[in-house]
């Protein structure tokens, strides 16, 4: 009954000259960007493949990229890395090495069990972290490689240690070759260079003459014999000194 009565009540008459109240406009709220999770991205070209990744870890860990990304930019359209047509070219970098570094900095799989990284992955990370002065990442890579250094082929240990300034890898390779049955092989000598091979063999012969042919030689014994063989080769003569790496005092500067 009440519904029927309500239906018969006419709407109130509002004179046309009285304006209706309008809803108040919504107050605009100023948005701010979260300091930790509002990431800018850049596009990189490695070989013929494009990668798009956040800048954050590059700026946080690399002096090289920090300098690149923090320079004032006049025109956003002209800046490398903002579009596929104008990427940041990474010359002299292998795609697989770059992908492995990105996967370390921005892991795709975080749900356990996360498979351990292979030695080859850590070597890729070492290469690029050395190239781009990513000191903390480089130190992690060296630590993981040294945990399994005996699994790295002996010549590769020496060449990798030389090219990326990792004295511990060179030491490991020298000690292994000094103790290797029959000494340095012809194939190893070709890969190392004949002069290096002859100097390693000289260390081996010197130790065997003084200690006996049935002995094996530890790092301390090789350390004592190596300087005289490599006295005019600064890197090889210094690798047995504590803190020999030129990286020992380097730290990535935080923003």
Automatic annotation (TrEMBL):
One of the Pfam families matching this protein, by short name: BTB
PROSITE patterns: BTB
Domain BTB: from-to ranges: 40-114
Gene3D superfamilies: Potassium Channel Kv1.1, Chain A
Protein name, per record: BTB domain-containing protein
Organism in which the protein naturally occurs: Armillaria novae-zelandiae
């Amino acid at each position: 009954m009440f519904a029927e009565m309500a239906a018969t009540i006419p709407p109130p008459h509002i004179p046309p000259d009285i304006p209706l109240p309008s809803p108040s406009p919504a107050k605009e709220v100023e948005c701010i960007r979260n300091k930790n999770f509002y990431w800018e991205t850049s596009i990189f070209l490695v070989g013929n493949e494009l990668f798009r990744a956040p800048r954050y870890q590059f700026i946080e860990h690399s002096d090289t990229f920090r300098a690149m990304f923090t320079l004032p930019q006049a025109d956003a359209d002209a800046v490398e890395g903002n579009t596929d047509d104008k990427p940041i070219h990474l010359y002299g970098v292998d795609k697989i090495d770059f992908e492995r570094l990105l996967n370390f900095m921005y892991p795709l799989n975080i749900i356990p069990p996360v498979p351990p990284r292979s030695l080859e992955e850590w070597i890729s990370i070492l290469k690029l972290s050395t190239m781009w002065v990513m000191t903390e990442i480089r130190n992690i890579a060296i630590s993981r490689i040294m945990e399994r250094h005996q699994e790295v082929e002996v010549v590769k240990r020496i060449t990798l240690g030389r090219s990326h300034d990792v004295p511990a890898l060179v030491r490991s390779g020298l000690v292994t070759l000094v103790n290797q049955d029959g000494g340095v092989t012809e194939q190893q000598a070709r890969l190392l260079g004949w002069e290096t091979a002859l100097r390693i063999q000289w260390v081996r012969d010197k130790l065997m003459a003084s200690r006996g042919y049935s002995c094996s030689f530890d790092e301390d014994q090789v350390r004592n014999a190596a300087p005289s063989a490599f006295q005019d080769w600064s890197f090889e003569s210094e690798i047995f000194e504590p803190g020999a790496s030129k990286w020992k005092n380097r730290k990535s500067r935080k923003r």
